[in-house]
Amino acid sequence: MKNSVYLSIFLVFMTFTIHAQSEFRLGVKGGVNFASVGGDFTNNTRGVFEYHLGGLAEFPVVTNLTFQPELLFSAQGSEHNTMATDGPRIITKLNYINLPLMAKYYLIDNFSVMGGPQLGYLVSAKNEITSSGFSGRSTTQENDLKDDISNFDFGLGIGAEYRLDLGIFVQLRYVIGMSNVNATEGVVLGYHRTSYDVKSINNVLQISAGYSF
């Protein structure tokens, strides 16, 4: 009798282990960002196209529910226009190492929805100002903003994924910032210096493709 009980427990344990191992995945992904810096500071700003690239892991939790942490390099920012029609083109470039922590639910075998927090660490920040001179030649000047931007960023992401049987997947995700991009001493966005009291947040729409196994 005891042997039967032990055998049953062992078989249940092995079944769960094999099932869990079959759903655990590692992968890589990359894609396009459509990013902007919005919030209270939105005058004369618009989004920019950038990119993201990194890796992920997917852990089974319960039936149809998994946990998917990712580690991504994400280029973000926004473009700022002056009121003058012949004013310079000013692009704020913010590069982050992001850690999305996504809960992922499979509605059907190959289609899932996801949501969760995202933690970000600022790697670099700069303004790139391109002006046209009297001769018609354009000149570009770069200003380092690393000391004026908050080192940490926090956001919430929601999205969806479709996975092919070959392990290839495509994702669509939107991440809205919840923390202030500005450091306490303020930040220069375009020609305007904001203060910490003026909240600026990161907004990013991501389209990704990747492979996991």
From TrEMBL:
Residues 20-181 form the Outer membrane protein beta-barrel domain. It comes from the Bacteria. This is PorT family protein. It comes from Aequorivita xiaoshiensis.
